Amino acid sequence: MLTFSFIIQILIVLSALYVGSRYGTLALGAISGIGLAILVFGFGLTPGNPPTDVIYIILAAVTCAGMLQASGGMDWMVQIAEKMLRRHPAQITFLAPLFTFFLTVLVGTGHVVYTLMPIIVDISIKNGIRPERPCAVASVASQMGITCSPIAAAVISFSMISSTCGFEVSIPQIVSVTLPACIVGVLAAALYSRKRGLDLDKDPEFQKRISDPLQREYVYGRSSSVLESEISTQSKMSVWIFLAAILTIVIVAGCGYKTVKINLVIQIVMLVASALMIILCGTSPAKAVAGKVWQSGMVAVVAIFGIAWMSDTLFANYMDVIKEMLGSFVSAYPWTIALVFFIVSVLINSQGATIVAMLPMAYSLGVPGYVLLGVLPSVYGYFFIPAYPSDVATVNFDRTGTTKIGKYLLNHSFMIPGLISVTVSTAVSLILSTLIYG
After folding, report:
1. pTM of the shown model
2. Dihedral angle sign, alpha carbons of residues 302, 19, 372, 166
3. 221 Cβ neighbours under 8 A, 6+ residues apart
4. Axis-axis angle for helices 292-317, 351-364 (nearest 10)
5. Which string of b and e fits 326-353 if b means at least 16 CB within 10 Å?
6. CA separation (Å) from 319 to 1, 14, 307, 358?
7. Which of 195, 215, 224, 237 can bridge 118 by disulfide, Cβ–Cβ 3.0-4.6 Å?
8. What is the DSSP letter of 38?
């Protein structure tokens, strides 16, 4: 039964998420701690379980990805992508999002988009292409890749939680559903973006802007490229070490290795790969810690820690009430759990945190595992309010001003590509999961 006390506690959780989102991702985790404290000490709820297993995995994976960035290996990957983009500039609206998508799949974090976005803008401007077309969908695609990465917290958390809830699904099995589905979703968004907006030479707003000589120099007088950068043998070796680590995890997970749990296998392999980069490639740990990938990963750890612990505390104490409220509806229309995932993601800006916080509840409501796997792409909803770092950075990288946040906040460049990508990916993923596991 829905009680006044339960309503107040839900409002406390939502308030903590709202206030935290106003201060940034790191604050989300910390301010969620205030919400947790009020629930436990103010209302006497039994504390839930902090997501320690997920946090350990993120720590190991982010350490390895941070070492890859510090070694210069990520620069080599971006350089390869730039060569192909400059070779086929007319197809940049399709190629750019595919490259940002697969970089995320490989590295496990969407923050690698920062290295490639200035190049996407530069190629677009040099070829008279409206940068908004590739930039908006490329930013969205960089986040879509998270549910397709074998080392991303979202995928690993889904596998671990599902196993404890009776739906045994390995990391390769998850990726085999989400990867093709999200590629279709990204391509659908790119198809829409191909002709969006006016060409630069026909856009009166842009033409007025560059009528100012200083603005023209700002737009056309700059260039971004990593092609001239020297990539050392050690940097290239770090990429091969990283890829070998990912391949090892996928093979071990696919073979159903039972002696050691897969979450421990991932941690061991990632730490070994990090050590090999230090020893064989001369990678500086201090440089890794100072890098964007490592820092953003640590922020994610704090966010997941606070958000998931607070959410688990609320749901664990009121599961009977939640089942009474939502059970019959979700049982009749299981796919509607996708809407819940999407809305929660909009609030907490993290796919991993959304899964850790909401997936156990979804299983408790009786939603079949194959349906939850099918709607996995729906955990990306934080493009809806354009405050996520990759979206904000994309707006700043676009010197033409075509990629923008509208006057009314929600009329921004990422909205339609994001909705298309998530909707199409979720629909395709649900079809594939139903056919394979339903």
Report:
1. 0.86
2. positive
3. none
4. 20
5. beeebeeebbebbebbbebbbbbbbbbb
6. 11, 17, 18, 12
7. 224
8. I
In angstroms, what is the C-alpha Rg of the chain?
A: 22
Mean pLDDT score, 245-265 = 82
DSSP notation for 135-166 = HHHHHHHHHHGGGG-TTSHHHHHHHHHHHHTT
Strand ranges in 188-324 using DSSP code E only, listed in sequence order: none
Backbone angles phi, psi at 363, to 5 degrees: -65, -40
The CA–CA distances, whole Å, from 289 to 24, 67, 230, 304 equal 20, 8, 23, 20
B/e letters for 22-48, b = 16+ CB within 10 Å, e = fewer, are eeebbbbbbbbbbbbebbbeeeebebb
Nearest Cα to Cα of residue 203 among 219, 222, 223, 187: 219
* pLDDT tens per residue, range 30-73: 999 999 999 999 999 999 888 888 888 888 988 998 999 999 99
Return d(Cα 321, Cα 319) in angstroms, integer: 5
- Joined tokens for residue 348: 């907490």
Dist. CA 74–CA 115, nearest whole Å = 9
- Per-residue pLDDT of 335-381, as tens digits, reads 999 999 999 898 777 898 889 888 998 998 899 999 999 999 999 99
The one-character DSSP state at 261 is -
Tell me the two tokens of residue 362: 């979804």
H-helix segments, 282-318: 285-290, 292-317
By C-alpha distance, which of 350, 345, 360 is closest to 314? 360
Q: Residue 226: which of 68, 116, 102, 114 has the closest Cα? A: 116
> Structure tokens of 412?
């921004």
